[in-house]
Specification:
The protein starts with 25 loop residues before the first strand and ends in a 19-residue tail after the last helix. With 1167 residues, the protein is an alpha/beta fold. Residues 1-24 are annotated as: Disordered. It comes from Rhamnella rubrinervis. InterPro entries: AAA+_ATPase, Apaf_helical, C-JID, Disease_R_plants, LRR_dom_sf, NB-ARC, P-loop_NTPase, TIR_dom.
Length: 1167
């Protein structure tokens, strides 16, 4: 940055934010050659930085004074956060520029200053190699400084070192303005990253959620994009959108945040949008609704903008605001927040659902407001946990309750929390009720049904299809969808179970309680005292629609009045949940036969678990009944066998499981629409009624555990799921062949079963056949025809002696085979391995086979092999090349694996490479030393390297949650984990300078675990491990942290020595790191340290879960369990030649475990 003439130091005015003194902190120091760029490029860059409110230091002196730089410039460099070096044609001719460069690189090393090289109209290799004009300059320097050649060499080295930093080249951009914008954007994102940790100090959990939003936004891509943010009221949608907006708005030419769109007219919102984006109030006069102004539309298409539309409640309102102006300029982003997912789906498929805070985030947020610090005093901690459970991760509730309880004594806390059980806090309810108010009457009714009945805690979980059937209304399906879209309910998983947030449910319950002072005049009853009162006093009315009661909540026996039900003519849902340890019970008149019921019952759902009587009152059988659940009842007969079968045309689900005294199945001959019958463990049943074959809509029949059942001839041919496990049948009826739609046939533990019918091959839809535990089954059935769908067969615990070749060859789709606990396992494996045409078998289980001593070469397509607790297993001949999961836990005599078999580098173009990989050798203490010292660690390095390379090599939608796990006995960290850390003395590790270069692939972990103390005391069954990674600068400030699901689950009660655990997870691969950092990716190389926090969850035999982070649980300290640890920074070598050399040498040697000596010099990873 200087000229070649001298000048008085008094003329040293600087542009350091115009005229700020050198004591001020600067955002950017600009080093440049004045005669090349001062009046052009550098001035443009300086003005662009200033327009973004970035404080830049630019020395405007035209003449250099002497050879050294002034103390003012020296301080300016030291006090700047970022140094920008503009390499130009004559940069090297200035000794001032070169001395500035040396000082800048010193600050980079000492203070971790960010350095951004700019190659302005010059190639980087000219700077690095000092050719052309740089060669001429150094020829003069060497003559001038011939007595101080060390200084010249120092300049040369500085130039060379600078070219290896991440920089920008002007030749890669079409115009200088575009190049300047790119530089400013990079600088701004790096500065923003430095400020993030303090800026969001009170927004717990915000960073991880912001990262996910920024991934959806994909800042840097040139397409215009709309994303949605949805979630229940108070969940933090506006806060999240605001944080993202504050982070990103300087990257755009125009920006606007429209808050509370729901409460403001569309016309006003549109006016504000136009005026803020274009800074021109007159532009509003050109805008008209529904008809687009070509002038305004053209301005939208020409300006890169960031728009946030917050709290939009209707598609009509959204359209009225942005109608005609959806076609924004390339790179523009629009964020829309709403409680209604349907509103968002009208404009985008990219929707982020804001989920509840986790337990730790919730406690931190609550304590921040309740105590003005992150953790409470010990006497308040228990009460704080109660609040966190009540709020269930809702940030608004946590903040409101924290502020409400702040500075109050502990007695008032307890009083307030008891009150919350009955009366929700008004400030929370006002926000939550907004979504409810947008429902129509039928949707409100559905909301109350779910809140009071279908989503009750610790009661039965209801699936969506069941609720739709029980409701019976033609609008039930759309009403449930609307409730889900408005974030009033959640439908989880493949089972479509309906759940509701605790606060929303409490709101619904409160609103029903307010219907009337008298419980009998309310629509729904669930409070034990209210239900007891109505049943005892017969005060129920036709207002009552649903009753639900858990007998464990009763405080006394309830004597039910004979007239308790007749007035409840609109009763639709009746549910009594009991438990064998319940202290109190319902006392029915005349053992239940004296009850009177409405003549025209609307009852649709009846559930009474542990029903205490021998027969069922006929008056309770309703023609509208959809689901009848009397599990664990004392029923002997349902109703009189001579009685005409009741009209049950609407009945779809019947559950009588565990009714051990039931001698016959109730007459269901008129239940023509029944779909599912559960009679499991009804031990007194002997036969299936013949009319079952006429129940043409019956899909699922569960008779498992009916230990006296011998006759199952009457089966519907339309069954899809049939479970006869644990019955006394000796043969499967030949009529089974007619069940062409049967998908699952479970015959496990049928100890009298001796043979299967040959026509089982007629079951063309069969996918799963379970014969495990059939102790008298000696022959596998002859499969004479191809079975194209049968994927899973379990023969565990049988005495079958062989697998007929003809049968196996007709199992064209067989992918899973369970041979665990088989006494004749060696014969079965021999038969199996001889059939090379089994090209779809991917999972094989031979665990607990005591007679198994050696595993022969297995089918090459196998991906999962389980050999747990094979106590006499000594060798495995060859692992299939496609194997991804091997579990050899507790094979304590296993010594050798003759050939590892897999070469992932050769197969890395295959999609199965992206599956998770796990090799477990827990407690295999006799493993060959070369296996544990060389083979297994080397195999782990291959798998990890290929997994880390895959996001760059492959464009695929395969499993992005893949993980690599290797566990084996030992106490040595493999040598390629270059960062060895003593867990007792340090949780940090230093990142090397410029660690995130172009060929960086990610991180992997290694730990040496010692669970001897846990094993000795047998306090827990297993241990769950999770890691949280934080990146830091040299001064210890946390710049970025996010949860990394590097998880493992150990049966720690049997782990009997030190074990090495190697872990890799794609959340720490290059691609996902880049996505997590979003626009800040260019600043990642500035991080100097990483800090790892470990969370251990200890799970007891009863399912109890205890957690502790970064410390100990009682006296079990984490350092005692994690005795060593290491981190591998993975780098790529494109051809993988060295790894291939190792593998080729290994294969030439025949794969013998004693002929495999990998060395450090042959490892692909750059160490």
């Amino acid at each position: 940055m200087a000229s070649s003439f001298s000048s008085s130091s008094s003329s040293s005015s600087s542009h350091s934010s115009s005229s700020s003194s050198s004591r001020d902190k600067h955002d950017v120091f600009i080093s440049f050659r004045g005669e090349d760029t001062r009046d052009g490029f550098t001035s443009f860059l300086y003005e662009a930085l200033r327009s973004k409110a970035i404080k830049a230091y630019m020395d405007v002196r035209e003449f250099e004074t002497g050879d050294g730089i002034s103390p003012t410039l020296m301080n300016a460099i030291k006090e700047s956060k970022i140094s920008v070096i503009i390499f130009s044609k004559n940069y090297a001719s200035s000794t001032w520029c070169l001395n500035e460069l040396v000082q800048i690189l010193k600050c980079k090393e000492r203070n971790r200053q960010i350095v951004l090289p700019i190659f302005y109209q010059i190639d980087a290799f000219i700077v690095r190699d000092q050719t052309e004009s740089y060669a001429d300059a150094f020829e003069k320097h060497e003559k001038r400084f011939k007595d101080d050649i060390e200084k010249v060499n120092q300049w040369r080295k500085a130039l060379k070192d600078a070219t290896y930093l991440h920089g920008l080249d002007s030749k890669e951009y079409r115009s200088e303005p575009m190049f300047v914008r790119k530089i400013v954007d990079d600088i701004w994102s790096q500065l923003r990253k430095k400020q993030t940790s303090n800026h969001h100090k009170d927004l717990f959990g915000i960073e991880e959620r912001m990262n996910k939003i920024q991934r959806l936004l994909s800042i840097g891509s040139t397409d215009a994009r709309i994303i949605g943010i949805c979630g229940m009221g108070g969940i933090g949608k506006t806060t999240l959108a605001s944080a993202v907006y504050q982070n990103l708005y300087p990257l755009f030419e125009g920006h606007c945040f429209l808050e509370n769109v729901r409460e403001v007219s569309a016309g006003h919102s549109r006016y504000k949008l136009l005026t803020e984006l274009f800074n021109d109030r007159a532009i509003q006069s050109l805008d008209t609704p529904f008809v687009v102004s070509p002038f305004i539309g053209g301005r939208f298409r020409g300006k890169k903008v960031l728009i946030v539309l917050d709290d939009v409640d209707s598609s009509t309102n959204l359209e009225a605001i942005i109608k005609g102006y959806e076609e924004v300029a390339p790179g523009s982003r629009i964020i829309v927040t709403s409680r209604d997912a349907h509103v968002l789906r009208n404009v985008t498929k990219q929707i982020y659902e804001v989920r509840e805070l986790d337990g730790n985030e919730s406690l931190d947020l609550f304590c921040f407001h309740a105590f003005k610090k992150e953790r409470p005093a010990e006497d308040f901690r228990r009460q704080s946990v109660r609040v966190v459970r009540y709020a269930y991760g809702n940030p608004l509730a946590l903040k409101v309750l924290g502020c409400f309880l702040y500075s109050r004594p502990i007695e008032e806390w307890k009083s307030a929390l008891e009150k919350l059980k009955m009366v929700p806090h008004n400030d929370i309810q006002k926000v939550l009720r907004i979504s409810y108010e947008g429902l129509d009457d039928m949707q409100k009714d559905m909301f109350f049904d779910i809140a009071c009945f279908f989503a009750r805690p610790y009661f039965t979980m209801f699936r969506r299809n069941a609720v739709e059937s029980i409701q019976g209304s033609s609008s039930a399906k759309i009403d449930i969808s609307v409730l889900e879209e408005k974030s009033l309910i959640t439908i989880r998983g493949n089972d479509q179970e309906i759940t509701m947030h605790n606060l929303l449910q409490q709101m619904g319950l409160m609103m029903v309680s307010e219907e009337h002072k008298e419980p009998g005049n309310r629509s729904r009853l669930w409070i034990p005292e209210d239900v007891s009162h109505v049943l005892e006093t017969a005060s129920g009315t036709d207002k009552i629609k649903g009753i639900t009661l858990h007998l464990c909540d009763l405080q006394k026996d309830v004597k039910v009045s004979p007239a308790a039900f007749p007035k409840m003519s609109n009763l639709q849902y009746f549910q009594i949940i009991c438990h064998k340890n319940a202290k109190f019970r319902l006392l029915l008149p005349d053992n239940g036969h004296g009850l009177e019921f409405p003549t025209s019952s609307k009852l649709r759902y009846f559930c009474w678990t542990f029903y205490p009587y021998r027969s069922f009152p006929s008056g309770l059988i309703s023609e509208n009944l959809v689901q009848l659940d009397l599990a664990v009842s004392q029923l002997v007969e349902f109703w009189n066998a001579d009685q005409l079968a009741p009209a049950l045309e609407k009945l779809k689900f019947l559950d009588l499981q565990d009714s051990k005294n039931l001698t016959q199945i109730p007459n269901l001959s008129r239940a023509i629409n029944i779909e599912r019958i559960r009679l499991a463990r009804c031990r007194s049943l002997v036969r299936v009624p013949s009319y079952f074959k006429n129940l043409h809509k019956l899909q699922s029949l569960d008779l498992s555990g009916c230990s006296n059942l011998v006759d199952v001839e009457g089966l519907s041919k339309n069954l899809s799921h049939l479970c006869l496990g644990g019955t006394a049948i000796e043969a499967v009826p030949s009529s089974i062949g007619r069940a062409a739609g049967l998908v699952q046939l479970h015959l496990h533990n049928c100890e009298r079963l001796k043979i299967l019918p040959t026509n089982i091959c007629k079951l063309k839809s069969l996918q799963s056949l379970d014969l495990s535990g059939c102790l008298n089954l000696e022959t596998f059935p002859e499969i004479s025809e191809p079975m194209e769908c049968l994927k899973h067969i379990s023969l565990g615990g049988t005495v079958i002696k062989g697998l007929p070749q003809s049968s196996i060859e007709n199992l064209n789709a067989l992918s899973e085979l369970d041979l665990s606990r088989c006494k004749n396992i060696e014969f079965l494996l021999s038969d199996l391995c001889c059939l090379r045409n089994i090209d779809k078998l991917v999972r094989l289980n031979v665990s607990y086979c005591e007679n198994l001593e050696s595993i022969p070469e297995l089918p090459p397509c196998l991906k999962y092999l389980e050999v747990r607790l094979c106590r006499n297993l000594k060798s495995i001949q060859k692992l299939p090349s496609s194997l991804r999961i091997l579990d050899a836990t507790d094979c304590d005599t296993l010594e050798t694996i003759s050939s590892w078999g897999r070469t992932p580098l050769l197969e890395e173009q295959s999609c199965f490479l992206l599956m998770s990989c796990s090799y477990r050798f827990d407690n295999c203490q006799r493993l060959d030393q070369n296996l544990t010292s060389n083979i297994i660690p080397h195999a782990a390095s291959l798998e990890i390297l290929c997994a880390a390379r895959s996001p760059r090599k492959l464009e695929t939608d395969c499993d992005h949650r893949l993980s690599i796990l290797f566990c084996y006995p030992g106490d040595t960290i493999p040598y390629y984990f270059i960062s060895h850390i003593d867990p007792v003395t340090s949780k940090n590790f230093e990142l090397p300078s410029n660690w995130c270069v172009a060929n960086f692939l990610g991180f992997a972990f290694c730990f040496v675990l010692n669970f001897s103390e846990v094993t000795r005391e047998k306090l827990f069954d297993r241990i769950k491990f999770q890691c949280v990674v934080c990146f830091m600068t040299n001064d210890g400030d946390v710049e970025n942290s996010y949860k990394v699901p590097v998880k493992s689950d150990f049966q720690c009660s049997t782990l009997n020595s030190d074990h090495v655990l190697i872990l890799y997870n794609h959340d720490l691969c290059y691609k996902n790191l880049q996505e997590n950092f979003g626009a800040n990716w260019s600043s990642i190389s500035t991080f100097t340290k990483a800090y790892f926090k470990y969370q251990l969850s200890f799970v007891g035999s009863q399912g109890s879960d205890f957690q502790k982070i970064d410390g100990c649980l009682r006296h079990l300290a984490i350092p005692k369990m994690i005795t060593k640890r290491g981190v591998w920074l993975i780098y790529d070598q494109e051809d993988g030649a060295k790894l291939m050399d190792i593998d080729q040498n290994y294969r030439v040697s025949g794969g013998n475990t004693h002929e495999f000596p990998p060395t450090k010099s042959k490892l692909v990873a750059k160490l």
